[in-house]
Write a structure and sequence with these properties.
With 303 residues, the protein is an alpha/beta fold. Helices cover 49% and strands 11% of the residues. A four-stranded parallel beta sheet has the order 6-3-2-7. Helix 5 runs parallel beside helix 7. The chain is globular and about 55 Å long. The chain starts with a helix and ends with a helix.
């Protein structure tokens, strides 16, 4: 899920950088990426790594964000609860929050999603099912198969690998799953609430923050604000709530304009405009996994 500004910024011309444009959704990409990474021999031979939350190192770094945020409100000895609202799609940051809790940090997690609400539905009812991936103005969250969910299940079930393996096999075969009541309860002990935001909800939140604080938030961050505004429960401490801001707004001109606001001129964005770009295409109908494997082998042979 890449908007136009990101597309320009990632289309590097350096000979050691190879960029592909894919005619599909984030879920389409994740499927063949996962097959390449779970091929242990291939991954080891070519020294593969990832910069998204497929890579455990990214989740480890995100754990630090929770401790840092907590310490903005409380000293290490205060012990007070701080609520953290997490905009999520693939659930990597949510995984980090659960890890922080398991390390003893007194935070309470709340999960915000966009119209692709598979995580919200699962947390509310225990039903996890794939439907059509909707294209929204919060594109990084346009995910129907949250690829960190098996890690979350692994953590909250005290590393019950047999259960997690069985559940993932069922889900991958049928694309639908009903969680055991015990697992749903274990998830609820870490994630207190969730909410789905429509595109119009997101626009309203972007406008609200601009009008009240003269500050532009990205559409993903806006899903978290929507949850905060819609769930002002007595258990929520407004003075001790963190909404994780997930991206720079300068990448999301389309969302800002659709909210009825003027998009400011960012020097960094202006410098990107007009730059030469270069990328390959993974078209519908191609074997994307084979395209990726062939390119990896080609790069390894050149090294």
């Amino acid at each position: 899920a890449v908007v136009s500004t990101q597309s320009t910024g990632t289309s590097a011309l350096d000979p050691n950088v190879h960029v592909y444009r894919v005619q599909g959704t984030g879920d389409d990409i994740d499927k063949f990426m996962k097959r390449v990474f779970v091929d242990a021999e291939f991954a080891k031979t070519h020294n593969l790594g990832s910069v998204n939350s497929i890579n455990w190192a990214r989740i480890m770094l995100q754990v630090v964000h929770y401790f840092y945020s907590y310490l903005q409100f409380c000293d290490p000895e205060c012990g007070d609860q701080v609520d953290v609202i997490i905009p999520t799609g693939g659930c990597g940051n949510l995984t980090a929050g659960i890890l922080a809790r398991m390390m003893g940090l007194p935070v309470r997690l709340r999960c915000a999603v966009n119209a692709n609400d598979v995580v919200h539905r699962m947390l509310q009812s225990g039903e996890m099912s794939v439907s059509e991936c909707l294209l929204t103005i919060a594109p990084a969250m346009d995910i129907q198969v949250p690829y960190n969910m098996e890690r979350i299940w692994y953590l909250v079930t005290n590393m019950n690998t047999t259960l997690v393996s069985d559940l993932m096999k069922q889900f991958e075969q049928a694309h639908t799953l009903t969680l055991p009541p015990t697992l749903l309860s274990q998830l609820s002990s870490h994630i207190l609430s969730s909410l789905s935001a429509t595109d119009e909800d997101i626009r309203k939140c972007i406008r609200k923050v601009w009008q009240e604080d003269n500050y532009l938030i990205c559409p993903h961050t806006a899903t978290g604000l929507h949850l905060f505004l819609e769930q002002p429960s007595t258990n929520l401490h407004p003075s001790k709530t963190v909404i994780l801001a997930t991206a720079s707004v300068m990448k999301f001109e389309e969302a800002v304009v659709s909210a009825g606001l003027s998009f400011p001129e960012f020097r960094e964005v202006v410098e990107l405009e007009g730059r030469e770009t270069r990328c390959g295409l993974m078209a519908k109908g191609q074997d994307w996994e084979q395209v990726l494997r062939d390119k990896i082998c080609e790069i390894s042979n050149l090294a």
